[in-house]
From TrEMBL:
<dbReference type="InterPro" id="IPR058579">
    <property type="entry name" value="IspG_C"/>
</dbReference>
<dbReference type="GO" id="GO:0005506">
    <property type="term" value="F:iron ion binding"/>
</dbReference>
<dbReference type="InterPro" id="IPR004588">
    <property type="entry name" value="IspG_bac-typ"/>
</dbReference>
<dbReference type="GO" id="GO:0019288">
    <property type="term" value="P:isopentenyl diphosphate biosynthetic process, methylerythritol 4-phosphate pathway"/>
</dbReference>
<dbReference type="InterPro" id="IPR016425">
    <property type="entry name" value="IspG_bac"/>
</dbReference>
<dbReference type="Pfam" id="PF26540">
    <property type="entry name" value="GcpE_C"/>
</dbReference>
<dbReference type="InterPro" id="IPR058578">
    <property type="entry name" value="IspG_TIM"/>
</dbReference>
<dbReference type="Pfam" id="PF04551">
    <property type="entry name" value="GcpE"/>
</dbReference>
<comment type="pathway">
    <text>Isoprenoid biosynthesis; isopentenyl diphosphate biosynthesis via DXP pathway; isopentenyl diphosphate from 1-deoxy-D-xylulose 5-phosphate: step 5/6.</text>
</comment>
<keyword id="KW-0408">Iron</keyword>
<feature type="binding site">
    <location>
        <position position="275"/>
    </location>
    <ligand>
        <name>[4Fe-4S] cluster</name>
    </ligand>
</feature>
<dbReference type="GO" id="GO:0051539">
    <property type="term" value="F:4 iron, 4 sulfur cluster binding"/>
</dbReference>
<keyword id="KW-0004">4Fe-4S</keyword>
<feature type="binding site">
    <location>
        <position position="278"/>
    </location>
    <ligand>
        <name>[4Fe-4S] cluster</name>
    </ligand>
</feature>
<feature type="domain" description="IspG C-terminal">
    <location>
        <begin position="271"/>
        <end position="357"/>
    </location>
</feature>
<keyword id="KW-0414">Isoprene biosynthesis</keyword>
<keyword id="KW-0411">Iron-sulfur</keyword>
Length: 371
């Protein structure tokens, strides 16, 4: 009867050129990667490597380190060599650190042309040295450090200004035959940021690094990033993402990973589906969901676990889950694929779920399923 059909998948990925950031491909058909940035002084090699190890364990695929001083530049060779994931050197102000980072074997260098005086004069040399070393460059334009000429032209950091700045810098590299580039055009306003990336996506084929800059504390930053990245990624725009939070960088990686999993751009790991609770609930669903999440965290299998507040609707509502619990009368009905397999006292729910999850995980291991 003319009911419009709704596509079951997101838009096709934008066609972008593929670049190689160390061992991680970015752009083309490479999966969208998650990156973060260390908060340590880069010159403190031990602390920086420790934080990189924590980030790597949390699923971070590329890490960026700030290089504001010569001491930081001096630390790069050891950090680049010992990091388990590709290291990008983040350079503002000083072109000489760009050369130091390339020499140090960093997987890529991020430059913010708006912050580097006489950057245009240095492009030829950077293009030559980076080209010879096979080191890609991220041109990272930020609303807060836009080229004064563009600020004067547009009055403020509009999407058009951000895009013009990025493409202008790209053109300087292109003049020297250098195209090993990815771009970011960050803004703290998701609406401006989304529009900037849309325009940029339409005007070049460089891979795009998505970011909402100064996104804020964890709650606000998570929402801003999820909304902005969600809008762009669902249109096929974005090749690597960095969630910026005023929180430990491991949190950024968790949020970034969840965004990709939510959009089906990465196979889901452990997923807790808990009911919102309602007047029928016979258990504290929020507390139980937290306990179950804590108990199952770290399981490396794509497991969907349902925590439901009542036995009336619980198993039926959670039929799609691999495993779940529905509570009522001080007991928990444990179900697998919607079928009740055991009934246990409320105090045993968490351990029984962990037990059942282990069994399913073992079976998945045997079947070769990994997250
Ligand atoms: Fe309400 Fe039960 Fe549904 Fe939870 S599972 S929302 S308690 S009806």
């Amino acid at each position: 009867l003319g009911i419009p059909s709704v596509p079951a998948k997101l838009a096709d990925r934008r066609v972008s050129r593929k670049i190689q950031v160390g061992s991680v491909a970015v752009g083309g058909d490479a999966p969208v990667s998650v990156q973060s940035m260390t908060t340590t002084r880069t010159s403190d090699i031990g602390a920086t490597l420790q934080q990189i190890a924590e980030l790597t364990a949390s699923g971070c695929q590329i890490v960026r380190v700030a290089v504001p001083t010569q001491d930081d530049a001096d630390a790069l060779p050891v950090i680049a060599r010992k990091s388990g994931i590709p290291v990008i050197a983040d350079i503002h102000f000083q072109p000489k650190y760009v050369f130091a980072a390339i020499d140090a074997g960093c997987a890529a260098v991020r430059v913010n042309p708006g912050n580097i005086k006489k950057f245009d004069d240095k492009v030829a040399e950077i293009a030559r040295v980076a080209g010879e070393a096979g080191t890609p460059i991220r041109i990272g334009v930020n609303a807060g450090s836009l080229d004064p000429r563009l600020l004067a032209k547009y009055g403020r950091a509009t999407p058009e200004a951000l895009v013009e700045s990025a493409l202008w810098e790209c053109s300087l590299f292109e003049e020297h035959g250098f195209r090993d580039i990815k771009i970011s055009v960050k803004h703290n306003d998701p609406v401006i940021m989304v529009n900037a990336y849309r325009q940029l996506a339409a005007r070049c084929d460089y891979p795009l690094h998505l970011g909402v800059t100064e996104a804020g504390p964890a709650f606000q930053g998570t929402i801003k990033s999820a909304v902005a990245f969600g809008a762009l990624l669902s249109e096929g725009i974005g090749d690597t993402i960095r969630v910026s939070l005023s929180a430990p960088p491991v949190e950024e990686v968790k949020v970034g990973t969840q965004i990709l999993e939510s959009l089906g751009l990465r196979q889901r790991g452990l997923e807790i589906v808990s009911c919102p609770s309602c007047g029928r609930a016979q258990v504290d669903v929020y507390k139980l969901a937290e306990e179950v999440t804590e108990g199952l965290t770290g399981m490396d299998v794509p497991l969907r676990v349902a925590v439901m507040g009542c036995v009336v609707n619980g198993p039926g509502e959670a039929r799609e889950a691999d495993l779940g619990v529905a509570s009522g009368n001080g007991k928990g009905q444990i179900f697998v694929k919607g079928e009740v397999v055991r009934t246990v006292p409320e105090s045993k729910i968490v351990e029984t779920l962990i037990d059942e999850a282990m069994k399913i995980a073992e079976q998945m291991e045997k079947d070769g399923v990994h997250s």
